[in-house]
Amino acid sequence: MRLKTSVLIILLLVTFSFASDLGIYEKVIENSTTPPDQIAEQLAASFKTSDLTFLNKIEVVTPNLVCKDSEKHSDFRAFLILVTCPSFDSLLVNYGNRYAANWILRVGVYQDQNGSQVQIANPEAMTRIICNDLPDGDYKILVDAAIKVKQKLRNTIIAAVEGNAVTTQMPPVRSDERIRKAKKDMIMMVGPMTFFKNRNQFPILNEVQVGDDASVTFNKVLAEVEQNIRNFKPAENDIDYHWCQNPETNLQWQIVCTVKSPERNAAVIGITRGRTEALSFHICGMNRDSEANPVPGIDHVAAYPIEVVVFEEEGKIKVGTTREMFRMDMFFWDAGKMAFMKYMKMPKTLDKSIKKAVTGH
After folding, report:
1. Which helix (H) or strand (E) holds 293?
2. What share of the chain is helix, strand, coil (3-state, %, to 5)?
3. CB of 85 within 8 A of CB of 278?
4. Distances (CA, A) of 77 to 21, 126, 153, 208
5. Could you give the CA distance from residue 193 to residue 174 in angstroms, rounded to a whole number?
6. For 162-194, what is each residue's pLDDT tens digit?
7. The pLDDT of residue 189
8. What is the pLDDT averaged over residues 219-248?
9. Is residue 119 within 8 Å of 26, Cβ to Cβ?
């Protein structure tokens, strides 16, 4: 009996020892003295000459945008560099066109009281979440590939930016086992931590039957979605939800990147807008702000853009995106339940706004 108990304990310890904690963000450079705008320029230039594909560089707004009291504003800035990895993209859609949801790689640059920081949206954590509906063997292949992509990102960043190279896992942090099992973070509010096991987490906003030429149908739908986003005008409930500076521009959804497969009917469009960025950073930072750092929530800069996926599946061209309550849980869970409760209307407001932008109605 003692022998059996000892063996069981050893097995449990061995199993546990292989589990690791993964932040949805991973800090790569810490406390650089180089200003964030210069770092963003350096990274954009470096990614343009790497074997990753540079997509865009944008300045992301801070909580200043949703704060009427100018005395509480901060001069800290945040930037987003978007890239993709063509070989990884091709591998992903071998398992299904919907996995184009995992094509956008995000590098965030932001300031705090200690200097400039550089982070990535952790490709390993993202892949473990987005692809956790796949069988174990396929899942492992994609996770291993994502780890290699992460190293490519890290190598390019470290070579381009002066500062302390680190591998800090940043909140929200989850174990790889918890992600694999799609464990719930906030049981009543969000549901399983998965894109595709529970289709409610990735609603299909529109679908069109494939015509005689699937590629023609696909390109037509993709073009229509992009045009709808450009034509978007916010509804009254969207305008009224929360004050922001210059709502005529900061409530407009902007396309910041589009990645389209050269081989398959699959594409992902990255969208974002000022008030959504600013308010989410305010929510996840409001319990951490201080005189030294009034806008700590910009350490979640790599949460954006939001993914809109256009893909062929089951004889149809489908347009889908992540449910915003789930997406906010994925990227902002560490804000805490009270913050989620205080802003309970925000996810549904965003869901309606994004649907209107994507479908045109």
Report:
1. none
2. 45, 25, 30
3. no
4. 29, 25, 22, 42
5. 10
6. 999 999 999 999 999 999 999 999 877 799 999
7. 77
8. 97
9. yes
* Residues 177, 185, 330, 93, Cα dihedral to 10°: 50
Which H or E element spans position 171?
Answer: strand 164-175
Q: C-alpha 290: how far from its chain's center?
A: 26
Is 146 in contact with 327 (CB distance < 8 Å)?
Answer: no
Residue 55 near residue 83, CB atoms below 8 Å: yes
Average pLDDT over residues 277-284: 98
294-310 pLDDT per residue, tens: 999 999 999 999 999 99
Q: What's the rounded mean pLDDT across residues 9-31? A: 73
123 upstream amide cis, omega within 30 of 0: no
SS3 at position 285 = helix
Q: Give the start-to-end residue ranges of the domains of the chain.
A: 23-359
**Calpha distance 218→206 (Å, rounded):** 12
| Domain at 23-359: CATH architecture | 2-Layer Sandwich (3.30)
